[in-house]
Design brief:
The chain is of the alpha/beta class. The chain is built from six helices and eight strands, in the order E-H-E-H-E-H-E-H-E-H-E-E-H-E. The strands form two sheets. Strands 5-4-3-1-2-8 form a six-stranded mixed beta sheet, sandwiched between helices. Strands 6-7 form a two-stranded antiparallel sheet.
């Protein structure tokens, strides 16, 4: 079965991304067409990119990179949950994306953005990045606003119509992940996690 990672795209104290990602998993848990798992970039403690060789070469040297690569290699597609900072995605998410290359290739991605204008510009920023990584970004997306989908900007309470947007996006992510199967090599990640590598966080999304 197709496996989709729901990526929490913020590490900021007091972040809202984790609540949003768990809400996406609640919706995804009602489906039977794919497996969905939470991937929290905070669990991997990635520093600013510290690999001496470009990721396209697949010569990862740092234990945190190897762990991150092994986790991302497990998935057939992704949902990126992203805040919007200064008309772009978060620096933490962009940094995490930039560590890898092959592990992203020939997969599909959808987006859930949040911010003052629904994270629209952060999503557009990520779409440009996905093209370079050979990731097929789907058209449907969900956009949450801090004013309307959080009570007093603190308690997450999304409006009902967003569930339909998330479902439409997940439909496309699953379909495109299936369609791209033929292009994905059965070989594991360019950075198979070595024996004895440090453990990394994993949460299964069945909220």
């Amino acid at each position: 079965m197709i496996k989709i990672g729901v990526i929490v795209g913020s590490t900021r104290p007091g972040r809202k991304a984790l609540d949003v990602a768990n809400w996406v998993l609640d919706i995804a848990g009602l489906r039977g067409d794919a497996l969905f798992e939470l991937v929290d970039i905070q669990d991997f403690n990635l520093p600013l990119l510290d690999e001496p060789v470009p990721p396209s070469m697949g010569q990862y040297s740092q234990p945190h990179t190897l762990a991150w690569a092994a986790r991302i290699a497990e998935f057939d597609g992704f949902v990126f949950v992203t805040p919007e900072y200064n008309h772009a995605t978060s620096g933490a998410l962009k940094n995490a994306i930039d560590f890898l290359f092959k592990e992203w290739n020939n997969k599909a991605a959808g987006f859930v953005g949040y911010g003052s204008v629904g994270g629209a510009r952060a999503i557009e920023n990520l779409r440009l990045v996905m093209g370079e990584l050979m990731v097929a970004d789907v058209r449907a997306q969900a956009m949450l606003t801090l004013h309307d989908d959080w009570e007093q900007y603190t308690k997450f309470n999304p409006r009902e119509h967003h569930e339909q947007a998330v479902d439409a996006m997940l439909d496309q992510v699953v379909q495109w992940s299936e369609a791209l199967k033929v292009l994905r090599t059965p070989v594991a990640s360019a950075a198979d996690e070595p024996e004895g590598a440090p453990p990394h966080g994993r949460r299964v999304g069945s909220m």
